[in-house]
Amino acid sequence: MNQADITKLVSKLRIKVPPTHRRLRNPLGPEGRLNKLRKTVTGLIKYERIELNYNRADEARQYAERLISEAISHGDCHKPTMEIADFWLLEKELVHKLFKVLVPRFENSSSAFTKMYKAPKPAYARAIEKTILELKGNPYPSLTTRQPNNKLLLQNVLLDAAKYDYRQTKYAEIAEKMSTPEETKNPDS
Amino acid sequence: MIPRVCNVLNALKNFEKHVLQMFKYPPREFALAYDYDKPVQKTTKKFSLNDLIGDGFLLAVPKFRRTVEKRWKRKFGSPEYIWKMLVPKTNIIVCNKCGHYHENGRLCGNCYKIVEEETKEIQAKIQEKLGTNKPIENDVIVLYDGDQLPEKPQEFWQGKRVIEMKKERPKWFSKNLLQKTTQAPSDSKDVKPTDLA
Ligand SMILES: [Zn+2]
């Protein structure tokens, strides 16, 4: 079949993309929505970890992923890609960062370039869903560290105390046993 | 609803009675004949609100009874829309790192607060070192006081922006983040128990 590989024409994102875009309400209409998303994408590329509302984060994440994947597949000598980067990154020094820092970082990755976490929310209060959006491979401390054997866990503290008590009683018993036979033996000999 | 309808019906009935009396209805032929003393004319004073309240004033008060359904809806809410009662949460788990409780599928509040503070500090440091309007061409490496540079070839270090934090590395921020593996693979098959107190 002499047919173009369709999957190579459009970059396939590694995140779930909803069928329609969100209508983020804005007094300026669709243009205002895009301006807001541009600000968010710029902030994400600049700071690598930002906290914002769920809807805006999820919407901006798709554009950021697309931007990075375009930059990876076409490189910085491709004019349309350069125009896209110029449109989405409001601070122009970030265009250099996109091609010189982020492209080498994500070139060989097989997963999505960004990660989104749900931010903690107060219990029983009306609060907007907040999320933390970050680029992978950032220099900041990780948000999720797996340390299953933590001594500070309440269960482990209680178990430690129980073990300590048990051992103390055993030691007392042994000490008693050691001391009593000697007393009984001594009079015999 | 019903009290309001009854009210309107009563008013209509009264109106009908008055109108019919104007046209001499019902006819006198059906009337009963009986001996009847003419009552003593009482001098009735006309009703006036002023006698009741005097110098005071009237507040708006409920006119009709609110039904049980409406009262309960106000009090407890509706399960389909807004349910006002406290409902026990079953998705609370213990954080593996610090032992605080948090919702499943969400970050631990205690841990996130610590990480957020450190992140903001590093971000501020990076921005301060970078300055403004300079093209960003290199990746960032964060080093704390007393950190040893991980052993890497010279090419790895070429053109990296090293950000120095002027303080000790926080205990919870692992030093091994810069290395690929935390432990060298070993050949021994003995398993040593850890964290047994
Ligand atoms: Zn925690």
TrEMBL record, chain A:
Q: Tell me yes or no: is Ribonucleoprotein among this UniProt entry's keywords.
A: yes
Q: Which InterPro entries match?
A: Ribosomal_bL17 (IPR000456), Ribosomal_bL17_sf (IPR036373)
Q: Which organism is it from?
A: Danaus chrysippus
Give the highest taxon in the source lineage: Eukaryota
Annotated Gene Ontology cellular component terms: mitochondrial large ribosomal subunit
Supply one GO BP term: translation
Q: Which UniProt keywords apply?
A: Ribonucleoprotein, Ribosomal protein
Record protein name field: Large ribosomal subunit protein bL17m
Q: Which GO terms describe its molecular function?
A: structural constituent of ribosome
One Pfam annotation reads Ribosomal_L17
Q: What family is it from?
A: Belongs to the bacterial ribosomal protein bL17 family.
Automatic annotation (TrEMBL), chain B:
Q: Enumerate composition-biased segments (Basic and acidic residues).
A: 187-197
Chain spans, region Disordered: 174-197
In its UniProt record, a GO molecular function of this protein is: structural constituent of ribosome
- GO (cellular component) term, any one: mitochondrial large ribosomal subunit
GO terms classed as biological process: translation
Q: Primary place of residence? A: mitochondrion
- The annotated regions of Polar residues compositional bias extend over 176-186
Compartment(s) where it occurs, according to its Swiss-Prot or TrEMBL record: Mitochondrion
Question: What's this chain's function?
Answer: Component of the mitochondrial large ribosomal subunit (mt-LSU). The mitochondrial ribosome (mitoribosome) is a large ribonucleoprotein complex responsible for the synthesis of proteins inside mitochondria.
A single Pfam family it belongs to is Ribosomal_L32p
- Per the record's keyword annotation, is Transit peptide included, yes or no? yes
Keyword hit for Translocase:
no
Q: What keywords are assigned to this protein?
A: Mitochondrion, Ribonucleoprotein, Ribosomal protein, Transit peptide
Family of the protein in this entry: Belongs to the bacterial ribosomal protein bL32 family.
Protein name from the UniProt record: Large ribosomal subunit protein bL32m
